[in-house]
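User:
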Amino acid sequence: MSAVLDASVLVAALVDSGLDGAWAEEVIADVPLYAPELVGVEAASILRRLERAKQITSAEANAAYEDLLQLDLELFPFQPFAQRIWELRYNVTSYDAWYVALAESVSLPLATLDKRLAKTKGVACEFLTPEKSSSSGRSAILRQGRSPAGT
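Assistant: Predicted structure:
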């Protein structure tokens, strides 16, 4: 299944050897994949943070960054989604709103490891998350209400 990806999924696929990483690898194996243009800088920032916290080595960070640059993602600019991003300001951060607005626009689920984001109300997209109750790493699509933002 194609999906809109957030940075948490990309980074997990690149550096996480656990269940979340295996799930994320499955997600990014499906194409086409969509993301806002900011996904690259957000993923790079996460890799930087992991390296500085010594959770990954410099070699791992460099390899993950190079792999990130090679991913086949269709990236979308801010302007076409600006109004919807602004409408979502009471529900989520502007960064997260960009992912949500894109997922709504292309009628695909938003793949994320962000539990808080996946529970957001007032959005018109579904969320694709790893099924935590399953050791198989299978995905769960969480259905969200389709009410207007801010309600």
